[in-house]
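Attaching the record inline, Q. Sequence:
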Amino acid sequence: MSVLLNRITINPRQCGGRPCIRGMRIRVSDVLDLFVAGLSAEEILEEMPDLEADDLKASLLLELLAAGETLVEISGD
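Structure, as predicted:
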C-alpha cells in the first residue's frame, strides 16, 4: 500500500503544490475527475499514455486516505 503512495509527489513549485503523479504535471485530481466522468481505468490509460495502472491505484488510494476512510488489506491465499 505505501509503495503505491510513493508514486504521488508534491512539489510546491509544480501545479500549485497539488499532488501529482511521479513528478509529472498530471495531478491526482485530473485522474479522479476522469473516473468521475465515467471513464474506465483502461480508457484513462489510453487517454494519458504516460500513466501506468499503479498510478491510477495510487490516486484512488490517496483519495481514500484523504477522505478518512479505513482501508483493510486482504491477502489472497
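The chain has a mean pLDDT of 91. The two ends are 18 Å apart (CA to CA).

More tomorrow.
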